[in-house]
Please model this.
Amino acid sequence: MKKNMVPLIGLVVGMGLMVWSITSAGNISSFIDTPSLVITLGGSFAALMVSFPLEDIKKMPTIIKKLMLSPAANEEELISTVIEISKKTRSQGILAVENDIKELDNEVLVYGLEMVIDGSDPEDIREIMEIKAENIEKRHSVGQDIFNKWGELAPGFGMLGTLIGLIIMLGELNDPSTIGSGMATALITTFYGSLLANMIFLPIATNLKSQTEAEMQMCEMVIEGVLSIQAGQNPRVIEQKLRSYLPESKNGNASERSSNPIDAELSKDENYG
Model:
């Protein structure tokens, strides 16, 4: 894993712009109210505890930590790994990679190759690996669900705090001069709810969803690679299969590789080998 500072930078920039817009036209102290923050943040978190099991809530620090990290592996590294394994299995047999797979850090790839070594049927391998990928997706979706729900709850509790403030204000109309300040205080909770939802909770959920989608694509590539290795397909064919999962922007060098005369000759030899 390597650090990913982009979410933190985005949050700092967003909050900085918010503070700048407030201070350029008013007083920042007018937007600070502890009871309003307690109602919005504390109330929505309490509702979150009602909505999800405690075990899922306990995972939130780990989920936030994952937000600040990005996987060290990428598609190119995965393709290279699968191609190297396929070359070795074609020349030395599938048992030759039994020790090599212990050094891999992709659990799905290791799981699939172990089944290939054990001689499992292709249909069983695909089915079991797809189930494993689905379990990974479900495990990762917990974080998305939590922050999506928190993003839904925060504005609601902001509105609830506003209603509480308005009720208190309307109950103390003996002094009309306090209506303006009372109304401003009542509206702060709505501000907090919208800010927390749109600046923090929903963006975190979207980020986690993007990470999960990228990992699921990697799982699909791994499944295709493992089945192709078991079928003994040409490494060049396997590479083209795996690269078909990548967007065009990441396949920019494919034409250069195919036009290389040395690679073309190797591919020709492999086809007839």
The two ends are 39 Å apart (CA to CA). The first strand starts at residue 2 and ends at 3. The CA atoms of residues 241 and 247 lie 13 Å apart. The beta strands are 2-3, 69-70.
